[in-house]
């Protein structure tokens, strides 16, 4: 992973509301979570929630899909795994 991409993703997760949203989505599983459920669970106003979800989508950590009238947010586990691997890839490299 390029350092610029990792930095952007970490920056978006560095906001407490976005981190709460993303953690909620990760718990929700690969099928995703309806936006209304996220709003009810976290108590975030609709326009604010939309803003934060858009930011997570923009860096590839979340995808949105529509099923009828319901909009789902789906965490992108592959991207999350890549970010975690990036953070760990040089772990203990300088140990002797």
Write up this protein:
GO terms for molecular function: DNA binding; DNA-binding transcription factor activity. Keywords: DNA-binding, Transcription, Transcription regulation. InterPro entries: ArsR-like_HTH, HTH_ArsR_DNA-bd_dom, Metal_resp_trans_reg, WH-like_DNA-bd_sf, WH_DNA-bd_sf. Residues 1-95 form the HTH arsR-type domain. With 96 residues, the protein is α+β, with helices and mostly antiparallel strands. It has a single domain (3-87), classed as Orthogonal Bundle (Arc Repressor Mutant, subunit A). Helix content is 59%, strand content 15%. It has five helices and three strands, in the order ααβααββα. It has helices at 3-13, 16-28, 35-42, 46-58, 77-88, and strands at residues 33-34, 62-67, 70-75. α2 packs across α4.
CATH topology assignment:
Arc Repressor Mutant, subunit A
Q: Biggest β-sheet, characterized?
A: 3 strands, antiparallel
Quickly count the helices.
5
Number of domains: 1
CATH class: Mainly Alpha
Oligomer description? single chain
Compressed to H and E, one letter per element, the order equals HHEHHEEH
CATH superfamily assignment? Winged helix-like DNA-binding domain superfamily/Winged helix DNA-binding domain
Distance between the termini: 26 Å
Query: What proportion of the residues is helical, as a percent range?
Result: 55-70%
Broad shape: elongated
Relative strand content = 5-15%
Radius of gyration: 15 Å
* Architecture per CATH nomenclature, i.e. the level-2 architecture: Orthogonal Bundle
- Spatial arrangement of strands, main beta sheet: 1-3-2
Count the E strands. Answer: 3
Keywords: DNA-binding, Transcription, Transcription regulation
Domain HTH arsR-type: 1-95
Protein name: Helix-turn-helix transcriptional regulator
GO molecular function, one term: DNA-binding transcription factor activity
